[in-house]
Structure formats: C-alpha cells, structure tokens
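Let us work through a complete example step by step.
Step 1: write down the sequence.
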Amino acid sequence: MFEELNMKWFKPEKFLALRLPSGDLYFGELAELTQDGQLLEMTPETEDINSILTDPNTKKIRNGFGVQIQMIRLDSESEGERTATFKYSGQFVEDQMTGVCRIEYPNGTIYSGNVQEGMREGYGKLVWPDGRMYQGFWKGNRMEGAGVYKGLIEQYEGTFINNQYVTKDGFVISPFQEISKAEDFGKLDRKGKSNRDKNLHRKNFHIKSLTSAQEIQAMGIDSFAKNRFVFLISRLNSGWNLRKVLKEWSGEKPLVLDCQQASFLYENKREEFTTFMNEFCMKLSAVMERGGQVILNFNEPSNPAHRSAFDPDMFFILNFTKELGRLLVPKEFKSPSIASTFIQGGKIHESFGIFLFADFKLEKDISNFFVTQKVSSRFQFFCNTKLGDIAILERTEQSPN
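Step 2: predict the structure and record it as tokens.
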C-alpha cells in the first residue's frame, strides 16, 4: 500500500524549492498563512512569487506534498559543510509532517505509512537494514495495535502494546529480542504450551534493593563475575540519580559513557563520533586492566547541546562498535580474542563491572514483574534475563524527600 508514493497524485508545476531556516532543504508545495489564519496557495505562476518568498512579513508554510532533507552542519563554525541525515517524502498539513509518507533514515531504515506531526501514527511499515520488519498500527512512534513483526529468527503476529507483543496468555515479549531455536525456549512442556513466555517473563531478572554506592559497586563486581551486567534504576523520591551515585562512589570514580552524546555524534558528526569512541575505548582499556567499573548513561546528556534526536537504546549500543557491543555479553567479552582488543593478554581485572543507568522512577510496592516490564520496555532492543541483573536504588535516611 505504501511501498511507493504515486507522483501522479501531485502536480509538479506547483512545487517550489527553498532552504528552511533550520538549514534543511525542502522541495514541494507551499502556502501563505495570512494574519487572519487563511491559507493561500502559492505556485510558481503566482504574481510576484519571488517577493512573497523573500518577504519576512509573509509567513510561508509547507502544505501539500513535499520532500524535505534534514541537513546537519558538520562543522559548527562552517556554513558550507553539511550532510543529509534524514529524508521525508510525503504530505504536509499546515507546516507539519502529517499524512502518507516515506521516511529514509541515515542507517538505512525505511518507514512507509502514516504520520501525525512527524510521529508514526496509524498504519505503516518499518523495515530495518538487516531485514527485520514490522507492519501494522502505530501510536506515538511505537508499535501499538494489530501488527506483524518478522525478525531474523522469529515472527510475531497479533496485538502490540508499547512496542511489545502481547501473547494470548497476557505475557509481554519484546520482539526485538531474537531467541535462539537451539535453546529450550521453543520446546513444549507437558501441557503442550510453549515455554518461551515462562522463561522470558516468569524467570525474571535477578533483582536486588540497594541503599548505598558500596552495595552498587559490590553488585557490579559480583554480577560481572557471573557473566552478567547490572541495570541501575531508582525508587520514586529516593533521591538517587547518577550524580549521587558518582558522588558516593568509593575510590576511583567509574568510567561513564554518555550514550546521548554518542548517539548525537553518530547521527550528526561521524568524524567526532569516531574520535569520541576511540578516546572512550582507550579509557576502557585502562579500567579493564587495572580494575574499576563502567556506567553506560542513558539519562540526560552531560552537554544539553548533545541531546540526541533519537532516544539511544540497546540496538544502538550493540551496533555502533562491534567490540564494544560485546561488552554487554560478558561471557563473550571475556574471551581472550575479544578482550585482547582492549588489553594485552586479554585478562580482565577481577574488580571490573558494567552498569546501565536510566532515570526510572519506580512507584512504591511495585512488583518485580512490573519492574521487569519497565526495564524491558526501555531497553527493548536488548533486554535478556540471562545477562542482566536489576539494582533498585532505595531511599535512605539521608536521602531527601
């Protein structure tokens, strides 16, 4: 239905080309918005079209069909160095991306379907570069409603809520987590039901409640020794945030990767991204060799200017650097062939550990099942109960209300 946009629907003679104030390129239909809110059609045949386009007192808006290419400046001090990072071809309604469209993302992902004010809404199809595909209904950029997800191994068809597939028994599965057919997940129990849902959602993460940075450090070391990493989340009004964790950390502070900044640079400034990641990997090598711990910070960026347009997730972390992606599969990461990428000899110090920090605020008395669901929904591209533990940071007597 949405594979190709039929240009016979549109009249190319009505198209105008211009550079938007943001630097983006736009080619398509425009309208003039009068002070009383009326829309006046603008075409190349319009009298004094050039004066209208250049008149600062005339509000020109995208309206109708158009193609917009997002142009990101490569060098903040250069007006000429720009690169295209996003292409939208489709309908605009009163300057908003609304209607049928085709969106091409910089990593090769393509969306064909409906959008509402720039967000996937209604029916549409998303195809990832590696061949994964979802076709169905969307709400607020998330899979919501009836749909079909075809992964590299498994396929899910039915109802999706908040980017996750809901089974007939009411269990929630992240479709992005491909499950190996070689494991017991696909086998049937005595009642003839699949064990997959039980293994994913009844055998939950290892969950612990912690009240001090010392307990956090100890859990990180213990989990990594068992080939696992730790999700750091906090209880509502507990007073815990990343700043507090770092402030109360004993000894040498952990190495922190700002995932928002990494995502921003990857999308907009590839050369700076490469330098940024090389510097991080050098620091990581030192921590692995002499001992210490690493925190992947998915919360607010250290520099507000580096806020990513796309929320960084586990899919991003696992794919931007092959070796670093394996960091989140500790058993594999510990293998000499991988570890030697960072340190000579490939032997990791026994005090090494890995944390993922996100600014969750868990309500009081929330069950472990719902804790798991919250973590799974945030880190949907990777969540694996075999690899991760959850540390819930609880309020202490010294914590503010």
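Step 3: interpret the result. The radius of gyration is 25 Å.
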